[in-house]
Amino acid sequence: MGIKGLQGFVERVCTDACRTVDLREMAEKHHVDHPDFPPVIVVDAMSCVRYWYTPESWVCGGQWREYLANLENFIKAFTAAGIKLVFYFDGVIEEKKRDEWIKRRLRNNKEIARIFQFIKTHRKQPGRGMFVVPSALPTFTRFALKLLGQKTVCTLQEADFEVAAYGLQHNCMGILGQDSDYLIYNTCPYFSIEKLHLDRLVTVMYSREDLCRALGLTLTHLPLFACLLGNDVVPESLLEGFWYKCLVTSPHKNSGYCRRTNILLAVANYVSKIPCSYSSLKHLEEVLPLGSDKTLLYRGVESYLLPGQQSLWIPPNLTNCQTFSLEQQTAMCQDKEIFQLAKEQHIQSENYAIFNILSNGEIECSNSLEDEHDTEIPGQALIYRLARQHIYSVLLEPGKGGAYPLVKEWFVYFGNPLQQPELIQPVEPSIPDGTPNLKTLWFAKGPDVEKQRYSTFLACFHLQEGMEELQALEAPVAAFCCLLAYLMMQVSSLSLEDLNAFVALILCLKGKSAAQLAGLQLAQVDSRAVHLGAVFVRGLTTLLMANSACGFPFRMGDLMPWEVFDGKLFQEKYQQSHRGCSLEELLEGNDSLYTPFQNLKSLICKACMAKKRTIQSRPRGYGFTTGSQQREFNPRFQQTHRSSFVPPYHNQMRKHLGRNPQPQGKK
């Protein structure tokens, strides 16, 4: 979260603490000064994703191939300068930050409502001033960087602490991010991602020493200074009276400054007069209105102490530097071997959400670009809940009496006030011989186990009857069909036109470069397609979770959005389908896609019919321009638009889309 207003204060008022630096030159100097330590920058990835996402289109679900190319270029720029990057992602939301997380999510809901209102009014994407990152961007960024060969760490506690600790312990050249907490930690230099010019590798370095000089403080004062301004440990609401007293006695009051700037200066003036000692801290705890918890200041100061560091504010015998110390006994999973593997895969960014469930039975999902006024499409959190319940039953062991432990979900959707987590009951999927245990799915070897992994994965999405046909497809296409079939089964308002759009998307996406997709122009943007794009991309994270739980029947790389989705291309296919265009236009005149199109559509409709779900035609073409020009149609594409689709094809998968006849096994 950082310290409210501190970053802007440094940039506007303490300009001497903002130094423009050339990272190439710094890397060369670092190499000379530390010949045994290659120049490494540790990256706070969560504070960088919005700067990495530069594709023009962002509302349609994400321009994933463009984004992947951006990440590749980012890495290449640093590699060319001899700088190694290490990327850190938040792996947990600590309890002390839950309230702030909830406030942000509720605030984001209002921003998203404004975005949909704009799209409905203007039929186009809002300007960058309303920008929100595409749904699940941080999750897929983590896997993208790993696939690009980068060291990627998913944390066991708040990322800023682990980033600062890594930078200090590994003698890093610096930290790249945008979080004012890095001005407080006594660690390596802090570089701005916001000010970075990638072409020249020039950015701004924020100097703690110069900040201290400007404020009359020492480095030792900074943690207390941060606590008295309000941070993750000490709530701002408890400090209003204290700030008022500081403002009254401050010699630095300036009517040209905003109130927050004057508070920062006044608190700095107050702190500068306090002797750095434990007794001073204890005295402060007594005089400040900290409520019932008089240890807030102590815990706040201690939260900035990195491994091996001590502070004059805290006696050495009391220092209890933060380390991850989750007791196995309190975890949902009591099997040490499973727990350890889940933890290792979590840290190395190899699984998704599994460790959070096995360790404390809690999981969260942030905002998605969903239209709260579209009552026909439930929130993605509700659409995928049944699949998650099946996944939880794969992961967790029932207790005495056969009852599973409940999983706490913090999922953002319209109508959920987030006042407390929802308690979700695991539900066993329908598997004839019962759900295999985790020991088997994760550790056993052989073709029979590979088949069990694949079938258990499919059972989480109610698709085990289609296993043979799905295995005959290329892995990304099979995963896409799993997700699409589940969506069509769960959301009764989805129509034949929606199905056509999704199937055309997966077929037409193949072979398109990032540059080709970037060049695709949309005459207008449809709000329902925006909503569906976000729902689909969130579904991919559910595939990731199921794949991780079932022992990786797919490679994680096959489940990534750049393999199966593009926001603008989906918008185009959605609009074409709903205005009743020909199949030739939908498939871009490529008649070799006709049979694969019918086959994939047949597979999905068969799965739906097995669950007594008939997909009806329901065009929503109003408001879109219908092309009036005549063209010559290839006879193979001539077909009438039926009101419902009866699958005419059953066993032609291998002929037209055949690949990977066996599941791929554990990675």
From TrEMBL:
It is found in: Nucleus. InterPro entries: Coact_PPARg, PIN-like_dom_sf. This is Constitutive coactivator of peroxisome proliferator-activated receptor gamma. Its main location: nucleus. PANTHER family: CONSTITUTIVE COACTIVATOR OF PEROXISOME PROLIFERATOR-ACTIVATED RECEPTOR GAMMA. The lineage of its organism: Eukaryota, Metazoa, Chordata, Craniata, Vertebrata. Residues 619-667 are annotated as: Disordered. GO terms for biological process: fat cell differentiation; peroxisome proliferator activated receptor signaling pathway. Belongs to the constitutive coactivator of PPAR-gamma family. Residues 625-643 have a biased composition (Polar residues). Functions as a transactivator of PPARG and ESR1. Functions in adipogenesis through PPARG activation. It comes from Bucorvus abyssinicus (Northern ground-hornbill). Keywords: Activator, Differentiation, Nucleus, Transcription, Transcription regulation. SUPFAM superfamilies: PIN domain-like (SSF88723).
